Structures are given as structure tokens and as C-alpha cells.
Amino acid sequence: MRRITRDDLRGLYAPVPQSLRDGVHAALAPLPEGKERIVKKKISISILLAAALAVMGVTALAVSQLNLFRQTAEQPHPIVPLDGADKLVVTHLGQTENAHVVLTVEEAVYDGQGVMALIRLTPKDIGHNAMYDPYLQDAPDDVYEKASVNKRVYWGSFIADPERGGEILVVNERDRRELWVGDKQVAIPASAEAARSADLPVYMDGDVMRSANEQGMEVTSRRDGRRMIDYRLTLSLAGAGASQLDELLAEARRAEGQADGSALVWFNGYGAKPLTGSLEMALSGETTLNGETVKLDGLTFALTPVETERRYRLIPEVDEVPGAYRIKSATINLSRVRGYFTIEYDMLSDDPYHTVSFRVLDREGRPINDGMGWMERGDDACAEQYELQSFDASSDTLTLLVVDENGDTLGQCVCRVVEEE
Amino acid sequence: MDKAAFERLYLDMLPGLYRLAQSVLRHPADAQDAVQQAAAKAWAALDRLPPGHERAYFTRIVINECRNIQRRRMRETPVPDIPDRGAPPGDRELALAIDALPEDLRLTLLMKYMEGYGEREIAAALGIGIPAVKSRLYRARRRLERTLKEEVALE
Predict the structure, then answer these.
(1) Chain B positions in Cβ-Cβ contact with residue A246 (cut-off 8 Å)
(2) Strand positions, DSSP E, A306-408
(3) What mean pLDDT do residues A233-255 have?
(4) Which of A24-28, A125-129, A158-162 has the lowest mean pLDDT?
(5) What is the mean pLDDT of chain A?
(6) Of B49, B52, B71, B70, which is closest to residue B60 (Cα–Cα)?
(7) Which A residues in the span 216-235 are in contact with B, Cβ-Cβ below 8 Å?
(8) Confidence at residue A15, expressed as pLDDT on a 0 to 100 scale
(9) From A58-67, A333-342, B57-66, the region with the lowest mean pLDDT
């Protein structure tokens, strides 16, 4: 019999680096201390919407230049908002700044289940600085100088070469760089060549630890000579909206550098089910220029749902495939912005690792585009949810395509569509 | 609770939360993102913090953050080739066996035997019932034994 102790298990994972403790502190530091500060900067979207409608000419111009929906419309399977969705978007929700940048919440929409927000970061000294945009995407070749260099080593502690039986431990923490071979600490080589000749996996390149063997492309500078400002933003729920914490997760899904040196950052999230009431969003972050990191003052803004949803139940003609699955419930909620498909089902297979996934087909049997989502296989029930292209035309039936974990089609399930009150 | 007290509390629990996040995401950088984001969200929702159940509450938020990161990997972009940076300093065979467990079983087992959570605490953190916790622990152990090809005593 093999004894496995708590220490055995804990030994499988890297310890907390000091940089993570610092990171937690940094994540908390810009957030308001208490409710008073949250309220102080609160901006009501409904008020802003009224103000925008009062100056219709300005609003119409702004709407024609919306960037918000590009994040879903330009993804591999586009989710394009329906006509009229732009009227739900509220603009200019607030602004904050630090020594490096001005942050503006330019656009946001809350359709009763999901939130999208668009943030612009603009360098204060835009003649000399520009935002570093490859935060969530590839760096465009026409903007950045890049070079093939040895890959940076991530922060943390890890076994560098598992094939060598856990022999080499690398510690790459902000205040602690170590290299262990077995029980012996060795000096970290100062060049890739030295590392390779010593059969060691990493070396120090100035203050940066790099892999001795793995190459990657790295941005070295901008072609226009401006210095790059790195940044980190967090959008979370605060105040009254925090009661929806488990139901909505908003995260940065895309960032894009602009020709003027500013950067657009898109946040997107949605709840497992329609949400109630307004949401209070808290934005925090920091920027780094020339190694100096400066926090941004926290900014909060409130989002009020602006559209009544259409909600449909899908009633399967046959809800069970023996030995495979049984559908318990399926719904589609639609707004002008997008749809949300949710299905709960039981797995009937004896194989605990067998899973299925469902795709919604339109009347012609074509898959309706979908995007971000999740699936869960629990002991008692399984569920899947994802965002979906919205649609206007009502249909009496829709079809669910059922695929297994390998992507192989298991069958189709025709469902009657029933609109809910 | 003021923010300084909250931060102390969270940092006290950080090693365990970070280990659990690594067990889900397998990548220290992602796991670090998850526990940092979770700290901000937990603070933002402080009024929901159930006194005496802080660890389960924080754990639930960290797991939600991990799932958030997984969602992005799964659906927004092609699944990246995640480097095995979470590979352990400890027993490699055990690490591979734990890693081979389905996530729900792995998390339950690690909460119980690595972090010492009670069954009620695991149930609260995972949003499942105590019978489900017991079932998962049983299945996790059986699965581990099959992989390791011997009986195990988890202590």
C-alpha cells in the first residue's frame, strides 16, 4: 500500500512566489476601501443615456463609430448584433488617470444577461509614448520591431525538464533566482551558450531569465521610436452588483493598439442566467513605463439593463438517447446584442469520461455561430452554456446537433421552441 | 473588515489557493492571474463574505476565475500548447497520476487531502452536496489506485 501524505501532495505544486504576493497587493490596492468611495465615483448609465438622447446629433455620430461590438463581430465565428443594438450602447462612462495614461470607459452595454465594455488607454505624452498593445494579440509587424530571441521564463518555480525525472528545479521569482540540480544549487549561466554547454535549461539575460533552448518572437521596440507603456486592467463587480458575482464574469478578451498610440481593451462577460437590476462595475489597474509601475485610481460605473429579453424554452421531441444522455432543460435567451444558449442534461454512459456537447442549428440545418462558453460535467448533472448569434425570425423548431468529446456527431435532436412569458 | 485585514486574511490562504489554481490550470502564470483576479473580486463582494467560511468562499471565487481562464482557452482561441511549467518539484509519478484525474475529482481530492478541507467546506466551495463530495472522493481514490497500480492510503 502506498502512503500519500499532505506534504507529498503539496510538494507537487510550486510555492507562492513573492511576486504573487505583490500581485495580490497590487490588485487590491487600487480598489476602493469602502462603499463611500464607490458611491463617490458612481455614474448612472440611465442618466447618461438620457443625456445622450438629449443631444441626438452627437449620439448618432458616436453610434456610427462604435467599436464595442467588434470584439464579437471579428472573431472566427462572428456574433453580429442585430439592428438596433447600437442604441443600447452607452458611451463615455467615466475617466481616470495616473502619471502615464488617461483611461476612459468609452462604451458599454448590458442586455440583462451579459456585459460588454470598451476601455481606451491614452498615453499622456503621446508624442513620446504609446500603449503596448500585444497584451492579448499578436504584435503587428508594421508597428513593432521584433526579433527571434530565447523565450522568457515565466515567473514561478517549476521543474524545467520533466523528462530528466524532476532533477532540475528552476526558481524564477522577482527577488529570488535559483537553479537546482538534484539537491545542489548551481550558478545560473550568463548566456545561452554557457547554459547549453552545461546542459542547463535557463540563463540570465541581464535581469531576465530565458530558456536556453526555446526560441520565440519578442517585441523589442516600436518602429516609430516611441516608448511602450505596459498595462494591466481588471474589471469586476462591486457594490450592489456583487450579489451577481457567481453569475457574471467579465474579462478582457481583446486589446488593440491604435495608430495614435492609444489602446482599446474590450471586456466581455455574461451570467449563467438573466440577471436582475443594475450592475456596478469596478475598474482597476496599473501601468508600467521604463520599469516604473503606477496604479490607476479605481473607477466604478453602473450599468442598467436596457432591453427586455426574449426567452425561449427548447422542448426536445426525444429527450433521451439510451446509454448516452438525457436532456433536462434547454433555453435560449436573446437580446439585440447576442443570444445565450444553456442546456442541462444527464450523462447516461457508464464511462465517467464520456462527454457530449450541443450545437444549435437553424431551420436550414446550419450551425448558428457561437462564441465564449463553458461546460461542466458534475456528478448529478451536466451543463453547457455559450453565447450565440442572436436572431429575429421566430421559428417553431430548432435542432440541436450532439457531438461527443472527439467532435464526432452522435445525432440530432429536433426541439419545439416555446416563448416564455 | 477593512482592506488591510482582508489582504492579510487572503494572503494567509494564498498558498493553498495557489496550489488549487495550479491543479486546475497547470500553468503557474495563469494560476497567478486567477488568484490575483479572485482577490479583487472577493474584496469587491466583501458584503457576501460569510463569517467563518472565508476559505470556502475564496476557493469558490478562485475556481470561478480558473474556469474563466479555461473558457477563454477553450472557445475564444485555439487551445494553446500549454507548457508544462506546473510540473512538480515532488514525486513525478504521483504528479502524473493526480494530473490524470478529471478536474472535479482532482479538486475534491486535493481540497480534502492536500489542504485539509472538511467535506462541508468542499461542498460549499464547489457548490455541490456532501453526498457528491463523498462520491467524488471515493472515485478519485479508486482512479488514483488504478493509475498507480496499488492501493493508496491518503493521510
Answers:
(1) 60, 64
(2) 310-316, 320-321, 325-334, 339-347, 356-361, 370-377, 382-388, 397-404
(3) 69
(4) A158-162
(5) 80
(6) B49
(7) 234
(8) 85
(9) A58-67
Q: How far apart are CA A332 and CA A341, in angstroms?
A: 5
| Substitution target from B13, B23, B35, B37 for chain A, most A beta carbons within 10 A | B37
Range list for CATH 2.60.40.1630 in chain A: 18-140+227-303
Q: With beta carbons less than 8 A apart as the criterion, state whether A117 and A241 touch.
A: no
For residue A136, name the pLDDT band (cuts at 50, 70, 90).
Answer: low
Alpha carbon B136 to its chain's center: 14
Measured between beta carbons, the chain A residues lying within 8 angstroms of B155 are 3-6
How far is A317 from chain B, CA to nearest CA, in Å?
A: 29
Q: CA A269 to CA A338: how far, in whole Å?
A: 12
- Cβ-Cβ contacts under 8 Å between A and B: the total is 202
Q: What would you report as the CA-atom Rg of chain B, rounded to the nearest whole angstrom?
A: 16
| Predicted local confidence at residue A37, as pLDDT | 26
Can you list the alpha helix ranges (DSSP code H) found in chain B?
Answer: 3-25, 28-44, 54-71, 92-99, 103-109, 119-126, 130-148
CATH number of A310-419: 2.60.40.1640
Interface confidence, given as ipTM, is 0.91
Separation between Cα atoms, residue A318 and residue A308, nearest integer Å: 31
Q: What is the mean pLDDT of residues A332-353?
A: 85
Give the distance from residue B43's alpha carbon to the nearest chain A alpha carbon, in angstroms.
8
Give the A window 155-194 contacts with B, CB below 8 Å: 155-159, 162, 165-166, 169
Chain A residues within 8 A of B64 when measuring between CB atoms: 246, 249
Q: Are A6 and B116 an interchain contact pair (Cβ–Cβ within 8 Å)?
A: yes
The CATH class of A18-140+227-303 is mainly beta
Interaxial angle between packed helices A56-64 and A45-54, expressed in degrees from 0 to 180 and rounded to the nearest 10:
110
A94: left (phi over 0), alpha (psi -120 to 50) or beta: left
Helix or strand (DSSP H, E) at A126: none
Distance from CA of A374 to the nearest CA of B (A): 6
**Nearest 10 degrees: Cα torsion A70, A72, A73, A74:** 80
Give the pLDDT score at B110.
96
Question: Cα–Cα distance between B94 and A280 in angstroms, integer?
Answer: 45
To the nearest whole Å, the CA of B16 is away from the closest chain A CA by 9
The residue with greater pLDDT, A340 or A65, is A340
What domains can you pick out in chain B, each with its CATH number?
1-87 (1.10.1740.10), 89-155 (1.10.10.10)
Evaluate if residue A57 carries a pLDDT over 50: no
Of the candidates A1, A10, A251, which has its C-beta nearest B19's C-beta? A10
Dmax (CA) for chain B in angstroms is: 50
